[in-house]
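Z., the sequence and structure:
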Amino acid sequence: MNNSGFGQKIYTFLLAAYELYLRTPERSLNKAYEAALKIQKIENEHFYGNKIDSHSTTYSSSVID
């Protein structure tokens, strides 16, 4: 009987369960941080480091929406 294949399946299942249930808050924070870095990169590249201002007349509504 091949126990190593079964053991690997159990390990994979437990690892997935760990990721899903125990690390969800950490993953959420990491994703939010990555999104903030992407926004910062866009601001730096296209808005000269300034925040995207919804009251600015320089940008069309498609930038703000």
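Residues 23-65 form one domain. The mean pLDDT is 81.

Let me know what you think.
H.
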